[in-house]
Design brief:
Distance between the termini: 67 Å
Radius of gyration: 25 Å
Shape: globular
Helix content: 40-55%
Oligomer: single chain
Strand content: 15-25%
Number of helices: 16
Mean pLDDT: 89
Low-confidence stretches: 1-9
Largest sheet: 6 strands, mixed
Number of strands: 14
Structural class: alpha/beta
Strand order of the largest sheet: 1-2-10-7-8-9
């Protein structure tokens, strides 16, 4: 049995989301809900993680893509579909198209992470690498749609997409009926809009809070202006929510139903990703960890129980490595400093001995003797240390000064 959603660009209602849920039965998994004792202690109320990072294709995007493509007329299916994405939407469209027997072409930026490109191809899409940024890729995909007649599948700006993503709201209410606050990451707004439609129709007392990265926060100025506005050059490590302009369809819904939109820093994003990995044993991409970043940024400002939606887990291993280093530095577990010492035999060994007594783990040492800034009997050492937290960083720096070293920073 197939379920068709309205093809007009109008409001999305609870019946649309319920129809999408029936359509997705046997396609999208009901992903698990995991409690977090660490976050619960910080917040002072139960915190649960909705693990959509464990969804097929590694993100929530399959839900909306499948519903959108399922709603196409036979002649539209025959023409195929086209999408533009740096990762999650690409994989969602590719798998949904394969499951429905529809030909798909996906345009991705030239610099898209290789694992995401490979996964999109494995799901059955014809992948074409075009443009250096997603805006260029999007333009080419839209040109392809006009040239070929393929249906362009927008990542967030369509009622069917919003309805598909809204099925997560139904799952959250089923898995955690006592919830009082739901945190949702926001880029274009399709996910937050869909969740808000489902949740507010059934539980208007539940707060739905959107979370954006500070460097890509188009919703606050748009809501203030009363219309979608573009921000120049969004910058954030969270590429899944790196969107410069809200979608027209989700914007109206977000304005009506989402209680609040918060922003989080890059430090908070990296710390959240590190926490998910260490404490929850979950691989989560920066966009997916944005909700946890909001909890870390102001933990006592939420009514519990709280559900933080982890929207995806597709992160390039090289990016993960850099983010983890950044997260450890933000958590005070890395210490980088330079210092001067007398250039004599045994001086470096003595320095390392001082660090050993201070219980700092040396990750890297750079020993410079020939810089023209140095005196005849001086050497400069740059150190990268692993520490136990901010207090330990201060203790290590103090131990070096007490030992007579000039710490430069």
């Amino acid at each position: 049995m197939s379920f068709r959603l309205p093809q007009v660009l109008g409001p999305v209602i609870l019946d649309d989301v319920r129809g999408a849920q029936k359509m997705l039965s046997g396609v999208a998994r009901m992903t698990p809900m995991e409690g977090s004792r660490h976050l619960s202690a910080l917040v002072g109320a139960p915190v649960h993680l909705k693990c959509e990072n464990l969804q097929r294709t590694g993100s929530f995007k399959l839900r909306g893509a499948y519903v959108r493509i399922s709603g196409l007329r036979p002649e539209e299916r025959a023409a195929g579909v086209v999408a533009a994405s740096a990762g999650n939407h690409a994989q969602g469209v590719a798998l949904a198209s394969s499951l429905l027997g529809v030909r798909s072409t996906v345009f991705m930026p030239v610099g898209a992470p290789l694992p995401k490109v490979a996964a999109t191809r494995e799901y059955g899409a014809d992948v074409r690498l075009v443009g250096q940024v997603v805006d260029e890729t999007l333009e080419r995909a839209q040109e392809f749609a006009q040239e070929s007649g393929a249906v362009f599948i927008h990542p967030f700006d369509h009622p069917d997409i919003v309805a598909g993503q809204g099925t997560l709201g139904l799952e959250i209410l089923e898995q955690c009926p006592e919830v009082r606050t739901i945190l949702v990451g926001m880029g274009g707004g399709g996910l937050a809009a869909g969740v808000a439609v489902a949740v507010k129709a059934l539980r208007p007392d539940v707060k739905v809070i959107g979370v954006q990265a500070e460097g890509a926060a188009a919703y606050p100025p748009s809501l203030a202006a009363g219309r979608p506005v573009s921000i120049p050059t969004p910058v954030t490590m969270a590429d899944g929510i790196k969107v410069g302009r809200p979608g027209d369809v989700p914007f109206k819904i977000v304005g009506d139903l989402v209680d609040e939109v918060r922003t989080v820093s890059e430090d908070a994003l990296s710390s959240a990703l590190l926490l998910c990995l260490e404490r929850a044993k979950l691989v989560v991409e920066p966009a997916g960890a944005s909700t946890v970043a909001a909890l870390l940024s102001d933990p006592r400002s939420f009514d519990g129980p709280v559900v933080a939606l982890l929207s995806g887990g597709n992160v390039d291993p090289l990016l993960m490595q850099r983010i983890l280093r950044h997260g450890m530095a933000a958590a005070g577990r890395y210490l980088s400093l330079r210092l001067r010492l007398t250039d004599r035999p045994g001086a470096l060994a003595a320095l390392l001995g001082t660090l050993s007594v201070a219980d700092a783990n040396v990750l890297d040492v750079s020993h410079v003797r020939t810089d023209p800034r140095l005196g005849l009997t001086e050497a400069e050492v740059e150190l990268h240390l692993e520490t136990k937290g901010p207090e330990h960083c201060d203790e290590v720096a103090a131990a070096l000064r007490d030992a007579g070293y000039t710490v430069l920073g």
